[in-house]
Amino acid sequence: MATALFPGSFDPVTKGHESIVKKALPMFDKIIVAIGENTSKKTMFSLQMRKKWLQDTFKDYDNVEIDSYNCLTTDYCKLKDVRFILRGIRDTADFQYEKNISDINTVLDSSIETVFLLADKEESTISSSFVREMLLFGKDVKAFIPDKVVITDKDICRQ
Ligand code: ADP
């Protein structure tokens, strides 16, 4: 029974993230989409909202679990008995970044394998940071976020 962990900030979830999970579903029995809280990144949206949007996005998929964790990703994998980490790649910058993380994770736990899936052309320019920028300027982001997700101005954490 192969389970994959798809870790990320999901600040917020985009059509790009949704597509990577959907593309990986035939490869795994189960996918855990989990928000890593251990980064020093300041987020635009609360953990609660980011989790809710992930739940909304994948509510029709019994084999997608939504969670969050505040330890090292490799330690979370051990906790959940997961051997595969799923990551998406849009371009060479993503590849370099993702390869570094994968190499570090291998040093931390050699039993973990990272599986990379390429973004489809339609989603290869979408990023959470682009969505955040659009929201800050009051633009409609419907085209870039999953159909089941609704983000309003009041969801933005302003502190
Ligand atoms: P992180 O903060 O860990 O980079 P993100 O939420 O930004 O988390 O991204 C999680 C994963 O999704 C990463 O592997 C990232 O490369 C991938 N990803 C982000 N946007 C897209 C997209 N448009 N298409 C495919 N993969 C994507």
- Report the sheet with the most strands, covering strand number, pairing sense and barrel closure: 5 strands, parallel
CATH C-level class = Alpha Beta
Give the helix tally. 5
Class by SSE composition: alpha/beta
Q: Within the largest sheet, what's the order of strands?
A: 3-2-1-4-5
Structure description:
The chain is an alpha/beta fold and about 160 residues long. It has a single domain, classed as HUPs (Rossmann fold, 3-Layer(aba) Sandwich). Helices cover about 35% and strands about 20% of the residues. The protein is built from five helices and five strands, in the order E-H-E-H-E-H-E-H-E-H. A five-stranded parallel beta sheet has the order 3-2-1-4-5, with helices on both faces. It is globular and about 45 Å long. The N and C termini lie far apart (about 45 Å). Adenosine-5'-diphosphate (ADP) binds next to helix 1, strand 4 and helix 4.
